[in-house]
């Protein structure tokens, strides 16, 4: 529990600091977001992706009508549910209408307070680095009263704008190495990303879920980051990391995905049981982490490109799968229950792999009875017609730029 003076000083300090920050590159996600009085805006994403900056951009010219509070401030470590009454006094004194709470899920019962503020006519936005911890409470007192959004590090287009680069293969190559974490791109120091990894593992997973074996958690995280684009099975990894059960490693998988550090891509099937039984492919949230936090010492250009295509699709579509019936196709993006994109990824199409890549894409196109598919490459462009299907070959900079 905090005193009135303590809480007032912390709020004043945070808001001077927050509202005084540079607004930064305007994020693409801003075009999708609107603040409403009757809905809480929920923004989740990996640490350091720019969620607070996005809130600042959302405020725009309404800073004097807004209050910001980051609950991870160490000075708020003793904040309890009754302290919200003290916060209400500060809100009334400041006469604000927009409330922005970062990592508020740390406080037990926070959803009751947010619901109260919505009922009082406030516009509320909540940000956090763990999707499940927030959505679980949203599904109780705030059912039907929340609008969820996800924020990832810079997209390829944002990366070009941030670094003032031309949209070409040279810029793609740079993005494949550096990724899109804003702070890292400013400082160009790999230690920033290594520290980020440690923070996610310790603060977002180990502390919140009471995990004592941090060493195994870290080894698993680095293993997954190092194996992007490959199928992963909890059963096969159990013994490798000395964990007692498949359920234990499955829990680790869930924690890592909920903090956005890695993402798991299921095999497409109309049967949920089939999806669960089959291995999932793993991708990292940003290729800067693959560069600076993996144990891979080769370029792995093909896997980097595949990860980039995955992230591009993940930003745009609610459901993404890989396809493997008779042959394999890298990505099926689903929108409103139907395939929106059917995509194969190949860094360099040549005589040795052309037929294999086309065959996998055709298998998926025939399965879904679709006429068009794409092969995304590093810098090749072409067009094929086979068996009544049209296959467009595009370089990544045209596909994503």
Question: Any descriptors?
Answer:
single chain, 401 residues, alpha/beta, Rossmann fold, 17 helices, 44% helix, globular
What would you say this structure looks like, in words?
With 401 residues, the chain is α/β, with parallel strands linked by helices. The protein has three domains: 4-150, 3-Layer(aba) Sandwich (Rossmann fold); 155-264 and 273-305, no CATH class; 317-401, no CATH class. Helix content is 44%, strand content 19%. The protein has 17 helices and 14 strands. The protein has helices spanning 4-19, 51-59, 83-94, 110-119, 131-138, 156-163, 169-178, 182-187, 190-209, 214-226, 234-237, 246-258, 272-277, 287-293, 301-316, 354-368, 396-400; strands at 40-44, 66-70, 98-102, 123-128, 146-150, 231-232, 262-265, 280-284, 319-324, 328-335, 338-345, 372-377, 382-386, 389-395. Strand 10 and strand 11 (338-345) form a beta hairpin. Helix 9 packs across helix 10. The model has no long low-confidence stretch (mean pLDDT 93).
């Amino acid at each position: 529990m905090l005193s009135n003076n303590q809480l007032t000083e912390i709020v004043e300090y945070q808001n001077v600091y927050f509202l005084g920050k540079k607004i930064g590159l305007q994020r693409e996600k801003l075009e999708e977001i609107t603040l409403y009085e009757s809905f809480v805006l929920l923004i989740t994403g990996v640490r350091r992706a720019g969620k607070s900056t996005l809130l600042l951009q959302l405020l725009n010219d309404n800073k004097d009508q807004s209050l910001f509070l980051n609950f991870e401030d160490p000075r708020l470590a003793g904040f309890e549910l009754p302290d919200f009454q003290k916060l209400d006094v500060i809100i009334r004194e400041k006469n604000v209408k927009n409330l922005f709470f970062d990592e508020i899920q740390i406080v037990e019962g926070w959803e009751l307070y947010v619901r109260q503020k919505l009922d009082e006519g406030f516009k509320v936005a909540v940000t956090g680095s763990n999707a499940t911890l927030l959505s679980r409470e949203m599904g109780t007192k705030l059912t039907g009263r929340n609008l969820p959004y996800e924020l990832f590090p810079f997209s390829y287009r944002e990366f070009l704008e941030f670094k003032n680069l031309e949209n070409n293969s040279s810029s793609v190559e740079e993005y494949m190495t550096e990724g899109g974490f804003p702070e890292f791109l400013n400082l160009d120091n790999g230690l920033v990303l290594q520290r980020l990894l440690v923070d996610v593992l310790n603060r977002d997973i180990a502390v919140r879920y009471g995990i004592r074996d941090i060493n195994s958690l870290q080894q698993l995280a680095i293993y997954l980051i190092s194996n992007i684009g490959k199928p992963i099975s909890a059963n096969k990894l159990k013994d490798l990391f000395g964990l007692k059960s498949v359920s234990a490693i499955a829990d680790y998988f869930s924690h890592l995905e909920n903090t956005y550090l890695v993402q798991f891509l299921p095999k497409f099937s109309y049967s949920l049981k089939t999806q669960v039984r089959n291995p999932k492919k793993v991708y990292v949230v940003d290729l800067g982490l693959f560069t600076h936090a993996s144990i891979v010492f080769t370029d792995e250009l093909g896997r980097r490109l595949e990860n980039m295509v995955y992230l591009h699709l993940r930003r745009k579509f609610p459901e993404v799968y890989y396809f493997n019936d008779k042959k394999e196709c890298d990505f099926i993006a689903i929108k409103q229950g139907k395939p929106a994109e059917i995509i194969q990824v190949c860094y360099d199409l040549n005589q040795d792999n052309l037929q294999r890549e086309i065959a996998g894409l055709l298998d998926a196109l025939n399965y879904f009875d679709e006429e068009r598919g794409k092969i995304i490459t590093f810098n090749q462009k072409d067009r094929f017609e086979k068996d009544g299907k049209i296959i467009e070959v595009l370089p990544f900079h045209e596909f994503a730029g």
